[in-house]
Amino acid sequence: MKDSLLLLFTGLGLSVTSWAFWKYGSNDALAVFVTVGFVCAVADNVKLRRQLREMRAKT
User: CB of 23 within 8 A of CB of 29?
Assistant: First the structure.
């Protein structure tokens, strides 16, 4: 029962957030998606470079 309520409230919160994003940020939605994608790609690149540096140091 507790998990069902948590899932219900999570879905409700995400749907309200999604509605607010498209209602108030529809003009800049593409810019937001591109920015989030770019930031994620840079963060992943930094993480992979760190792992590569650690692997090179071990050999």
Answer: no
